Structure formats: structure tokens, C-alpha cells
Amino acid sequence: MKKVFYLAFIGLVLLFTSCDDKPTTVTPGTRFYVEGQEIVNDTLEVPLNSYQEIRIISYSPNFVSYSTGYFGITYTWRRINEYPTYLTANSQNLVILSNEQSEGTKEVAEFRMLFSDTIYQVGDLYKLRVQFCDYERTLNVVVR
């Protein structure tokens, strides 16, 4: 009887140790797209009096940043040398289209802005920043 219990115990141990429970790591990254084309450099030139939609696809690991204590992706918009404006989900200028979580988080957002000549001037430089954990990517937006 002891041998049966011993063999059953060994079988259960082998069963549980054979499961692949190693955490997979997701490489943090952000990509920007305009009209389906990826922006490969970090600068986008937009015409004055134009309406632009910038699709943002971000991949992040699922954990809380100990430095900020924040879980999630932060979007900011700022003019060079000025304080940033934090863009919130489903605000006037930022819409979260999807948020999928499995081994990490894949979030698809869309930044929308009208570059009207009543607010913007030719040569203005703005920065669209995406941050999470200790990762950040900035897209420079230049009005032409």
C-alpha cells in the first residue's frame, strides 16, 4: 500500500513539474501609424489646417512599476519647453480602441488632432509621448 501511495505521489509531482509555468516576457515597445503606414523615424510632419489620426500600438509586460506605482500606459502631449497635457482614455484627443491582456498587454489607441491655424503655427514642435513602466517613446510632431 505504501508503494502505491509513493508511486502516486511521484506521479503527481512529475505531472505538476512538467507544466510549463515559466513566465514569458514581452518586449516593451510602441509603434506609431498614420493611414496604415508605420512611422519608422521619430518625427512626423503635419500640414497646417489638417486633421491627423495617429494610431498607437503598445506592448507592455503585466506588472506594476515600482518606481511610479502605476499600472498602465500613460499618454502625454506637449509643446516643446512647456508642461505636458496628460491624455486620458476616451478624451477629446485620445481614444483607446482595444486593450488585450495575455502574456502582456497590447493596447491600441488613436490620437486625433486638428492642427488649426488659430492654435498652431508653421514650425511648431510638439511631442506625443507614450510611457509605461520604465519605457517611453516619443513622437515629434512638426507643423508645416
Structure summary:
This protein has one helix and ten strands. The protein is mostly beta strands and 144 residues long.
Describe this structure in words.
There is one protein chain. The chain is mainly β. It is built from one helix and ten strands, in the order αββββββββββ. The strands form two sheets. Strands 2-1-4-8-7 form a five-stranded antiparallel β-sheet, with no helix packed on it. A five-stranded mixed β-sheet has the order 3-10-9-5-6, with no helix packed on it. The chain is elongated, with a radius of gyration of 23 Å. The chain starts with a helix and ends with a strand. Residues 18-22 and 64-68 have low confidence and may be disordered.
Distance between the termini: 84 Å
User: How many DSSP helices?
Assistant: 1
Low-confidence segments, given as residue ranges, are 18-22, 64-68
Strand order across the largest sheet: 2-1-4-8-7
Tally of strands: 10
Work out the strand percent. Answer: over 45%
Q: Return the average pLDDT rounded to an integer.
A: 85
Largest sheet: 5 strands, antiparallel
In which range does the helix fraction lie? 10-25%
Principal-axes geometry comes out as elongated
Order of helices and strands: HEEEEEEEEEE
Quaternary structure type: single chain
SSE class: mainly beta
Rg estimate, integer Å: 23 Å
